[in-house]
Amino acid sequence: MTDTGELTYRRVHAASPELLFDCMTDPEHLAHFWGPAGMTTPVENIVVDLRPGGVFETTMVNDADGSTHTMRAVYGEIRRPSLLEWVEADVQGGMRTRVTFTDLGDGRTEVVTHQTNVPEAYRSAQARAGFATSLDRFEHYLSTLDSKRR
C-alpha cells in the first residue's frame, strides 16, 4: 500500500512571473538556489530539457560530506510564464510538482508549489523545513539580481 499525500507551499516575490519562470528553468539560475540549506547544485549537475516529456534532472551535493542526491523528473505541462509541472517517477507514487506563477499586478508574483503523490517521508516536518530553506535560498537569490530584471 502506498501512503502518499499532498503539500502546498506559497510565497510572494517582488519579481515578474517571467523572471521567476526563467529562474526555475535556467540551469545558470537554478545553480544559485536549488536544494535545501547545506546542499549545492553545480550548474553542470543540472539538465533542463524544457518541453513536455523533456528531462529535468538535478544532482545536489551535500556541503558537509560530499554525498549526492539526484532528482530525476519529466516535464508535463509548461506554460511560460504561468505554469511549470514535472513528475518524479522514481519517487514512490510518482510525485507530481506543479508550480504556478500568478502576477499580482503590483510588481509582485505569487508562486504556489503544489505537490501530489508525496510519500510520507517527504511530508515529515524535517523534510518540509528543508524545502522551506530552498524557498528561502530562492528569495535570497532573487534579491541579488539586478533590479532592472524584475
How would you describe the overall organization of this protein?
The chain has 150 residues and is α+β, with helices and mostly antiparallel strands. It has one domain (4-148): 2-Layer Sandwich (Alpha-D-Glucose-1,6-Bisphosphate, Chain A, domain 4), CATH 3.30.530. Helices cover 22% and strands 41% of the residues. It contains 3 helices and 8 strands, in the order βααβββββββα. Strands 1, 2, 3, 4, 5, 6, 7 and 8 form an 8-stranded antiparallel β-sheet that branches. The longest helix has 20 residues, at 125-144. The termini are far apart. The model has no long low-confidence stretch (mean pLDDT 93).
Put the structure in a nutshell.
By secondary structure, the chain is α+β, with helices and mostly antiparallel strands. 22% of the residues lie in helices and 41% in strands. Strands 1, 2, 3, 4, 5, 6, 7 and 8 form an eight-stranded antiparallel β-sheet that branches.
How far apart, in Å, are the first and last alpha carbons?
A: 46 Å
Task: Based on the coordinates given, report the CATH architecture.
Answer: 2-Layer Sandwich
Low-confidence stretches: none
Per DSSP, the total helix count is: 3
What is the fold named in CATH at topology level? Alpha-D-Glucose-1,6-Bisphosphate, Chain A, domain 4
Give the overall shape. globular
Helix content: 10-25%
Overall pLDDT confidence:
93
Largest sheet: 8 strands, antiparallel
